[in-house]
């Protein structure tokens, strides 16, 4: 593969994602980058998100609601989605990562390159709101 030409906009997208923990959608990335690059197009944001995901610089989360979300943190970790407010939260668990790596290593029908576990439930904030309403 040829070397990737440097792009300020692409680097800004990557840095924006790495500075956040809320796993924004492409629209959120676009709205925030327009403050820096007023002429940036939504298509440019989508193309760069796709490219960064393809080359492993960011992670694309496709199984959390209707819109894809993006994660600037590429180190192995799982995600939790609140089914009430749709927040996506990083889950860091060495024991879980160890279990997933072990299962992947024992897989005999091919070679596993990546493991992604997703958890669904209700976040602390939504649980607190439910308690107050009760």
UniProtKB/TrEMBL annotation:
Belongs to the Fur family. It comes from Blautia aquisgranensis. InterPro entries: FUR, Fur_C, WH-like_DNA-bd_sf, WH_DNA-bd_sf. Pfam families: FUR. Keywords: DNA-binding, Repressor, Transcription, Transcription regulation, Zinc. This is Transcriptional repressor. Gene3D superfamilies: 3.30.1490.190, Winged helix-like DNA-binding domain superfamily/Winged helix DNA-binding domain (1.10.10.10).
């Amino acid at each position: 593969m040829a070397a990737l030409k440097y792009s300020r906009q692409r680097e800004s997208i990557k840095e924006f994602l790495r500075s956040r923990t809320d796993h924004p959608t492409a629209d959120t990335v676009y709205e925030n980058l327009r403050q820096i690059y007023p002429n940036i197009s939504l298509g440019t944001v989508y193309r760069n998100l796709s490219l960064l995901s393809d080359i492993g610089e960011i992670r694309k989360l496709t199984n959390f609601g209707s819109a894809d979300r993006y994660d600037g943190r590429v180190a192995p970790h799982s995600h939790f989605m609140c089914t009430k407010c749709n927040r996506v939260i990083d889950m860091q668990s060495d024991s879980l990562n160890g279990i997933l790596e072990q299962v992947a290593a024992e897989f005999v029908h091919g070679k596993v390159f990546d493991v992604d576990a997703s958890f669904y439930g209700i976040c602390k904030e939504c649980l607190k709101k439910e308690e107050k309403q009760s």
